[in-house]
Amino acid sequence: MTTSANNTATAIAHTNIALIKYWGKVNEQITIPYTGSISLTLDQFYTKTKVTFDPQLTADQLLVNGKIQTNLTKVSRVLNRVRQLAGSEKFAIIDSKNFVPTSAGFASSASAFAALAGASATAAGLSLTHQELSKLARLGSGSASRSIFGNFVEWLPGDNDDNSYAVPMTDVTLTDIAVIAVNINSQSKTISSSQGMQLSANTSPYYSEWQNVVARDLVNLKHALMTNDFALFGQISEANAMRMHALTLSSLPPFTYFEPGTLEVIETIQALRADGIECYYTIDAGPNVKVLTQTANLSLIKDHLVDQFGPSRISVAHPGPGIEILE
Ligand code: 2P0
Hints:
This is diphosphomevalonate decarboxylase. The chain is α+β, with helices and mostly antiparallel strands. The chain has helices at about 75-85, 110-125, 130-140, 195-205, 205-225, 230-250, 260-275, 295-310; strands spanning about 10-20, 25, 30-35, 35-55, 60-65, 65-70, 90-100, 150-155, 165-170, 180, 280-285, 290-295, 315, 325.
């Protein structure tokens, strides 16, 4: 990476879907997770962010899709670290655009904070490695640490700011994967991921067992990825997602991200599978469902979901690239 001579840089980062979920922070200030996690970066959904440091500014300014934002808490964590590393006191204008079809129902924080890390570090003249960018993105949002890299990515939890970062997974032989996103509701949720995971970690009686579950699921998912075992990949991913959602149901007070439509998609996937069509589902901190399948069954499953839920709710993605920095 080269240094930026004119205080400005643009970066593009893609969103990711977690297969082994991150759900809980040991340290909320610097986003150290209780467990590791594994995700797949997706090709269709990304954020493009331009950062310009300007000595005339008296505060950071954030535009998302052209709209001024007032809550800059997480953005400031990233920019303050960049200023500290660069020995600069300049504030920045951040112009961020999400290229996530409204029908996809993906959260944009992973791609947004990964793009912010790449653009702000470059604009400040820093030459950071991808590992350092992953740590920087993590300060904004945990899942963003993984969106620095393409394809399958593992976030090594670590226990401090220096050893908690994501790495690209090597030796993966499972490459034929398609993800069908079914949008049930794209309104923002009433319990944010940060609030939800904190509640689960503090109150679910199952939280200590979740950490054991994730340790086992990480080993088994890696085995599936290295042996090109799609059935095992799907089974582990689906079970891990449901175990994460069991933490929300078992919190005090209990809560869920599921909506009636979420359960409808789950039933459809179970029925397709009973008919011998191989597909699995995963669900993040929201009602929308991502169906995991392979090329051979993609059209059939997509057509089925389009018939049932309507074309505007369905979008398809494949494994996508890591961060791209444009000077
Ligand atoms: C994940 N999620 O591993 C999990 C699974 C949602 C469910 O990471 O609090 O926006 O900003 O670190 O990264 C979404 O939460 O949370 C998320 P913070 P983030 O992808």
